[in-house]
Amino acid sequence: MKANEDLAGENTKTFKENKILSVNLMSSPGAGKTTILEETIKKLNAEIKMAVIEGDLMTSKDAERIHAQGAPVVQVNTEGGCHLDANMVSKALQEFDLEALDVVFIENVGNLVCPANFAMGEDKKVAVLSVPEGDDKPLKYPVMFKEVDVCVLNKIDFLPYSNFNMESFRRDVKSLNPQIKIIEMSASQGTGLDEWCDWIRGEVQWKKEQK
Amino acid sequence: MKANEDLAGENTKTFKENKILSVNLMSSPGAGKTTILEETIKKLNAEIKMAVIEGDLMTSKDAERIHAQGAPVVQVNTEGGCHLDANMVSKALQEFDLEALDVVFIENVGNLVCPANFAMGEDKKVAVLSVPEGDDKPLKYPVMFKEVDVCVLNKIDFLPYSNFNMESFRRDVKSLNPQIKIIEMSASQGTGLDEWCDWIRGEVQWKKEQK
To answer: Is B140–A110 a contact, with Cβ atoms under 8 angstroms apart?
Structure first.
């Protein structure tokens, strides 16, 4: 834990020196992290230089999807490990041309529990929840929702076919984390991507202005 | 790990002495484990005596849902822990009148990674995957799908609104685990529950006949 904290501090320094915004994306398996990144790259590639660190237990399926969008990507296979850690991120960063980048997205292993407890030195943490998972998840997995800056509620195109209660979801999330920003999204349909991209733009700007 | 194995062995003995079938249900958050158990209790309560151990990080929401169906239930809060272990199950078992039971369901913490690695002494392991999570999940979370006896594919009522490829899902699951039984289900709509309940009946019978 201590060694991880130290390495996370080193990563923070690397991001700061290169004025790179780093964003850790966390969710259950299948909530839509990779699709969100694909669409983000399509929308912002002309104005913001992005790279992705892809965390997975096995396979490089997600990294191939990111590569197809034309962004630099490094695949990290945890070989069964349930989250990324600062050391994995540190090694992956060595593969990028950092001076050419504005943003590094870190797509964590699909897991709503363990990733919330491991610092990697990132600037911002994002939890993605998808409508089919149910509105009861924030209270059941509170550590995740307390830790993050943004909660993306993805797959809102499933709302008509689900008993997801938006009011109760918003109330629960805000009760755990009053400062949290909630973005409703359907990444596959394009809903909410403008709000998300505006948030990224704002954070990139903020990072560039940091001394 | 060793202590956990020993305790798991004790649990196995307890199940055997009482001729109780024990089933460990694992999945991502929101795949539908609790709904499956609610519907199973409704369907089988008259013929099979069931109890449930409910694993959660926090809250007793799921235990309340099971209690409402009239089955004995013990809530285990892991206080942030990402899976149940043999010790938690052993303690929970002390709360039940074991002689009066045919089946104990163990609903694990919502997590497709960690629970696959922890023995609890159970007879059967079941992975629940839901259609909105995507057909790529078996290869991305192979340990889980290699370990289980049954894979329930839940929320098949979402198939018309999703790009889930059933053929590729079945091929991938079978490539990891040729012996696995796949049950297509929509627990909320009642689809596939008969096949699931028949499997439970068969396993209860098998357990009663064990010496």
So the answer is: yes
